[in-house]
Fold this sequence. Notes:
The protein is mainly beta. The protein folds into two domains: 1-98, UDP N-Acetylglucosamine Acyltransferase, domain 1, CATH 2.160.10; 102-242, Hexapeptide repeat proteins (UDP N-Acetylglucosamine Acyltransferase, domain 1). It has helices spanning 6-23, 30-35, 170-175, and strands spanning 39-40, 45-46, 50-51, 56-57, 62-63, 68-69, 74-75, 80-81, 86-92, 97-98, 103-109, 114-115, 120-122, 129-131, 136-137, 142-144, 149-151, 156-157, 163-164, 167-168, 186-187, 190-192, 197-198, 203-204, 209-210, 215-216, 221-222, 230-233, 238-242. The strands form four sheets. Strands 1, 3, 4, 6, 7, 9, 11, 14, 17, 22 and 25 form an eleven-stranded parallel sheet that branches. An eleven-stranded mixed sheet has the order 2-5-8-10-12-15-18-23-26-28-29, with no helix packed on it. A hairpin with a 4-residue loop joins strand 28 (230-233) and strand 29. The longest helix is centred in the first third of the chain and has 18 residues, at 6-23. The chain is globular and about 55 Å long.
Amino acid sequence: xxxxxxxxxxxxxxxxxxxxxxxxxxxxxxxxxxxxxxxxxxxxxxxxxxxxxxxxxxxxxxxxxxxxxxxxxxxxxxxxxxxxxxxxxxxxxxxxxxxxxxxxxxxxxxxxxxxxxxxxxxxxxxxxxxxxxxxxxxxxxxxxxxxxxxxxxxxxxxxxxxxxxxxxxxxxxxxxxxxxxxxxxxxxxxxxxxxxxxxxxxxxxxxxxxxxxxxxxxxxxxxxxxxxxxxxxxxxxxxxxxxxxxxxx
Length: 249
């Protein structure tokens, strides 16, 4: 039966973190967390600042300093959470790396993926962000969960600063409605297929579907659906050319 772990996760870990800074290196608290009833696998190195009592950490996971693991976090085997990130209601696939300063919430990513530094998840309501295996999300991207965001496997979002908006407050502002009111807020999901490449500094608007094996060129604004095997670019984005359908390797 699991022992109550809140004292270790919320009170003792900051003290251990401070001790590590004093001696000049992070202190691995994995054994203490395991003793306190946390689900921490073998070979794990956990040097985080705080951890909720329902967090699950698999074998050979590395969690850096100044990391906060909130409720509902699941870390797959061999994953790495670099220092300064905050996670809550997040599932990280095996052998996936989360770089410095990320804010991930209502978020799930598959195995062998890479989440670039300062990637942020934002939103309102009960939506969720789901990304397949082998994905790359570049640095300083923003992912909105409000209307639901789904990306397939092998997706590459080449940051910096690409934004996926699944809600719009434009009608609220034009109508004089309060921002925190649900009235007038347009919400629609975004779906991105498998093996899609999206360049840096792009904006993807609510309701857009981007088909498999397509390319969105950098600095594009996408407000309409993109068919599979198409290259689009511009603001607003238009079709540049049709792509060759290559045998999958």
